[in-house]
Amino acid sequence: MEKASLKTRLEGFARDFGNFIYGATVYDWVRELDKERGKLQSLFVLIVFGDFLGVPIIPPYYQLRLLPHIVPYISTWKRSMLREPDITEIFDEDMG
Questions:
Q1: Which of 78, 30, 34, 22 is nearest to 52 (CA)?
Q2: Any idea where the domains of the chain sit in the sequence?
Q3: pLDDT tens column, 24-49
Q4: How far apart are CA 12 and CA 7, in angstroms?
Q5: The pTM is what?
Q6: How far is the C-alpha of 17 from the C-alpha of 23, rounded, in Å?
Q7: For tag attachment on the chain, is the N or C end more exposed, with fewer CB atoms within 10 Å?
Q8: Cβ(66)–Cβ(48) below 8 Å
Q9: How do residues 53-75 score in pLDDT, each as one tens digit?
Q10: CB burial class (10 A; 0-12, 13-18, 19+) of residue 50?
Q11: How far apart are CA 2 and CA 18, in angstroms?
């Protein structure tokens, strides 16, 4: 019974140590890459489906071909494009 407890504690320590190393080394990079991916995805959807917001950019034929791939993102994309930026987001971009 004590071996199982020791094994569990060592596994927990290894997991926590791995999380610490991850946070100390690459967490900021991953966070910034996720932000950039989100910005590029919003830009792509704006270019392709901009007429939903009144910005006609691309012919409707291509919109219909891409529509099945974009449908899950449309509601969150519209919300993110139409909301005003928060003051903390502006300062976060200036510092990074």
A1: 78
A2: 2-95
A3: 999 999 999 998 998 888 888 887 77
A4: 9
A5: 0.54
A6: 10
A7: N
A8: yes
A9: 777 776 677 777 877 887 888 78
A10: middle
A11: 24
